[in-house]
Amino acid sequence: MGCPDDPPGGGPDASLPPPEVEIGTGGLDRYVPVADGDTVELARGCQGGQHVWIALRAKHIETEPALVTLAAVRVSDLEMVSIPITVRLRFDQGEEWDEIRGLQLVIPDPDDVLTGDIDIRARVAEDIPGGPIAEAERRVNVVWGDETCGALGDGGHMDAGHADGGPDADAGHEDAGHDEDAGHDADAGHADGGAHGAGDGGVPDAAPADA
User: What is the pLDDT of residue 13?
Assistant: First the structure.
């Protein structure tokens, strides 16, 4: 990822390739790809809640930190079944793809995700006026995992092989999102901690939380 000067007018540079984002799972130390139809695990947190581990990889994001939005939607009725997240994060840089690992998508009621297909939705937006946006969606099944409080395990993905371990999870994003009962840690300086609801079942607006 680079940080070029903004083009005249402060908008995105049309000559740059469009940003891309892909959704995966995994704990703090790996990105595991997720395909439509895969099964991901619901992990039990230390404070009585539960969450799905989310990892993202992206490329062609030219300004950082980027606005990252995550949500889970029940396919049958398009109801939001997670506490949606909107945070500013930096990606760990890689040769082709940059990654964020160890994000927790909190599920308040496990019954909402264990009885049917769930769409996990992600949006990454450059935090500049009119900045480009990358979106991705994966339709998954969710089952209870074996992970217990304090044990990250393999991040709870059953259908896809493990990717090679990535760089230190502390070296590129700001430790956001390891409190399963709060969605993301509001003290990290880039989370709004709130639920930007999307009545049509879409990903919540990724407006700057402290604009």
Answer: 57
